[in-house]
Amino acid sequence: MAKVSVYNMEGKEVETMELDDAVFGVEINEHLVHMAVVQQLANNRQGTQKAKTRSEVRGGGRKPWRQKGTGHARQGSTRAPQWTGGGVVFAPTPRDYSFKMNKKEKRAALKSALSSRVAEKKLVVVDELKLDQIKTKDFVKVLDNLNVEKALVVLNDNDKNVEMSARNIPTVKTATINNINVYDILKYNTLVVTKDAVNTIQEVYA
Questions:
Q1: Contact 95, 49 (CB under 8 A)
Q2: Where in the chain is the domain with CATH 3.40.1370.10?
Q3: H or E segment at 17?
Q4: I need a surface site. Which of 19, 25, 103, 109 has the fewest CB within 10 A?
Q5: In whole angstroms, what is the distance from residue 88 CA to residue 80 CA?
Q6: Rounded to two decimals, what is the model's pTM?
């Protein structure tokens, strides 16, 4: 089992804890990790783009000039793609980009992402994250104490003071255990997790 240091909000090491290899020490499956990231980005796409083909553009029913004898190239419609105001050749239509992954694949991808953070020493465990009031400056101070900049902060439960204090920092995102995903874990340089959240993750995913 891997051992990690547990820090307090002042950035001082207060204890060490062991991580379950079934969650934080699995063999990294890059294919599933890639698939999970692609799935999340695809599922977030609205797929509402639309352009008209030549059959949908208004007008153009009449042949603009006779077939022969004008000196122009032959034309059948003023709404053909080569005309200004004409239809688009392979016009995009509304579509659904989402696709599904099996539950086992999702779990394996998440474990791989968590294990990669441990392997790269980018996992910071905090004994607790508690703020007396909603104040961004206080949260920035905590991050400075932990020597962290771009981070995903994982909480065990919703904490309004912490979430609202972090919301205004562009390089930080907060999430509860129910909302963590592979994309966010990999997007941010450091994964900051409370000790309670680590224990809960190990209970849920072990």
A1: no
A2: 2-45+98-205
A3: strand 13-19
A4: 103
A5: 8
A6: 0.81
